[in-house]
Amino acid sequence: MRFLADAGLSPLTVKFLIQLGHEAVHVRTLGLQRAPDLDIVERARADSSIVLTFDLDFGEILALGVLDKPSVIIFRLADERPASVNQRLGAVLAERSVDLESGALILVEDTRYRVRKLPIGRADRS
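Above: the chain sequence. Below: its structure as tokens.
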């Protein structure tokens, strides 16, 4: 899988994903650290990447119900240090890779995560 890490995430999370065998890049590497969220979404769509972020605004963009990609993982953790983020991210990737590949918004919290298939508002495909 390919990932695009938003400005709030540590480059250590990018390194973690690369060590797992994924492709990952940080917005800073692309010069997009000050880009509007919609530009980041469009870049991720163009590159077939999954957005990683702490920013709830990405959820609002997807809540419009128009986009089926990119998948977005939003972290809402008490501990936002890379070790904590990487641990939760590893668990989500192990359990939800199919959802991420088909298009999903995943909200990752300390003890659980919630998955919404994209586009938001369509009938459940289960």
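The mean pLDDT is 93.
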